């Protein structure tokens, strides 16, 4: 039987999974590298965590490294938010393919987003994601996703796609999450609970 890591290997340099080394909680000093062992039965396509675009790394990218960068990227906020939830092990990727750490300079034109949504559809078809819940990180991701949801639903053969927006985890969004992984977790869990109602 082919594992999801093998199935999705062609996306390993830009995508990842919502799984990190085990920890009671995740802080800035926690190990948040991508664990490559014992993932059978953990990785899934029931939910998809979606960022806007890959940031420019200060280190050389490694397979499944996206969303698993220690230090100033606050990726440990995501680990803390999804710890011990049904979304642990979810597929993680970005809506846009442009590598850029300055979101204000991104190409958010309709043509670019439609092109990249088509790439996302290909990923989800390869993943065999039937009707995932999209967890949208940040308001820019939520707006671009919502504006182009019909392209995604058509590509997946769905009447509509299910999604929930959560705050961005970046340090620049500290006014919302107080630069606290614990508070960020509470905000994300509240949004996910509201989406279930």
Question: Overview of this structure, please?
Answer:
The model has no long low-confidence stretch (mean pLDDT 90). This protein has a single domain, classed as 3-Layer(aba) Sandwich (Uracil-DNA Glycosylase, subunit E). It contains seven helices and five strands; from the N terminus they run αββαβαβααβαα. Helices cover 34% and strands 13% of the residues. The chain is globular. Strand 2, helix 2 and strand 3 form a beta-alpha-beta unit. The protein is of the alpha/beta class and 197 residues long. Strands 1-3-2-4-5 form a five-stranded mixed beta sheet, with helices on both faces. This is Uracil-DNA glycosylase-like domain-containing protein.
Summary of the model, kept short:
The protein is of the alpha/beta class and 197 residues long.
What are the salient characteristics of this protein?
Uracil-DNA glycosylase-like domain-containing protein; 5 strands; alpha/beta; 197 residues; Uracil-DNA Glycosylase, subunit E
